[in-house]
Amino acid sequence: MRIKDIFKEKTVFSFEVFPPKKTSPIEVIYSTLDELQGLHPDFISVTFGAGGSGNSRYALDIASRIKDSGIIPMLHLPCINFTKAEIDAALTEAQQRGIENILALRGDINPDIEPVEDFRHASDLITYIKTKGCFDIAGACYPECHPDAENMVEDIINLRKKVEAGADHLITQLFFDNDHFYEFREKAAIAGINVPIEAGIMPVVNKNQIERMVTTCGASLPSKFVRIMTKYEHNPEALRDAGIAYAVNQIVDLVASGVDGIHLYTMNNPYVARKISEAVSGIIGA
Ligand code: FAD
Questions:
Q1: Which residue segment(s) compose the domain that 95 sits in?
Q2: Distance 239 CA to ligand 1 centre (A)
Q3: What's the CA gap between 4 and 178, in Å, rounded?
């Protein structure tokens, strides 16, 4: 089934996983996948290194394994460091394996890697994938503006190009303040962006994540969030439970506000995914 059709039936609930490091065998993710699949998400997306990480081969294998388990896979595909021939090879292999859903991305610009100019923006890749005629295509979007964009107006205009090129649905960057999402959704609607928008939710459940968030993630941290993280940062169990509770609160509010879907950044942590799934199963289906 194509993901775009599920939005017509219900609030979509999906997961994201990332492949293991290239120095680890692929099997290290199998038990995680088994547990996540048992939670019956509408689909599971698999991230794909934008170049240089060397673990992108795993992404196709993981997506195939998800498909074999009866769950719809979505393959992320960043383009900025790949030639058209490499993108073609990935799409052909995806098609041969029956993977019908692609999250088309530019990928972050790595200052140490000269970008390949075959596809400069995600919209270029979407236009290209569309010519294949056999994929459902998603795109990324940024409730707090993409860091490369001058401002929100420019970013939304560019987002509209992505949708006009053929994106069937959008998934947001993580955010911790739902008001950013609501404002963004309204601006997108005013700009004529009328495809479903899934909200990307990241449960922050350990200290490493907090540190990474502060240094690398553009998402703003509301005072309520900072208070909770500061209070429990030295108590791993309490921090985990507080992170789960915070994510559940976000999801309940989003669903009550008519969100099209929730995309859970699971961080390959099935315990956290299970706790959240159990807490929201009644409201997602209601
Ligand atoms: P684009 O849509 O190309 O946008 C990038 C910038 O260019 C923006 O500032 C935009 O305003 C501007 N722009 C866009 N189109 C045009 C245009 N036509 N003309 C002029 N300017 C334009 N990265 C990975 O490497 N692997 C992954 O698996 C991965 N998964 C992700 C999943 C999600 C849900 C999200 C939100 C991000 C993910 N990323 C991933 C990160 C993503 O690759 C980066 O955020 C990247 O910097 C931008 O990708 P994009 O597809 O949004 O780019």
A1: 3-285
A2: 31
A3: 24
